[in-house]
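We treat protein structure as text, and this decision shapes the records that our systems exchange. This encoding replaces a full spatial description with a residue-level series of whole-number codes. Below, we set out a record of this kind in full and without editing:
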Amino acid sequence: MLKKMKIGREVKVLARASFFILVGIFFYSFIFFSVVNAAPQGPSSVVLQANETKGDVSAVTLNISGGRIATVNITAKNQNPRWKGFVGQLVGTFTLDDSTSSTLYDWSMTTVLGEVYATRNVSTPSWTNIRCANTTLLENENYLMNHTSANDNITKTFNGTTHVSFVVATTTISANACPTLNTYKGNATQDTDFEEMVLTDQTNFSIANYSNLIYSTVIENNVAGFDSITYDFQMIVPEIGYDGFNGATAYYLYVELS
């Protein structure tokens, strides 16, 4: 009888210990899950420092005498209304906030790493489904945005595939996997910094289930940009290409710090 009572107590103690172990594992798993599932977030604030475009260039005078034929080689440079760009600095902070954005503690970042994202989709992307866009999606976006010129459409513009690997939420985007480009430095082409890739949150690549594209650029740290001024990011996004279109397509920005 004593032996049975002893065994009974041991079973109860073991069961109680197992319960607390399971609770502890669940609690730890919940905390761990909450941390690693961090996804890109909308920025706390955006300050528009400048919004500029290329100025008009005066006509060139050509005056020859009557009875003559002039052979003329002309170089023209017109502003492209089918594309627009975002460049700037980024201040990063890691924080512990509650649902009302009250801060328990935060950490300012001396070196900001991560990515800036832009999409014209008003809905928050499904970051757990993120992947590289493919040619089918780029061509469909050409159709939706009326980018009909093969000289500067989205497919032609993002025609590179060389970029670093990076992580979006919990998904690793492998190096050299996405359509990509490098915006300019010092008014010249380059292939080292300011990489921009095209992503999607679509799991089925058919046109019928089309989802807006997500443009992603890797954050730099005070790198001389297109005009030799230092920036943390540079990126370009398409605008509607209809002839005579004078509106503006809104893009929604997200930032992921790492």
Observations:
- Confidence is low (pLDDT under 50) at residues 1-37.
- The longest strand covers residues 83-88.
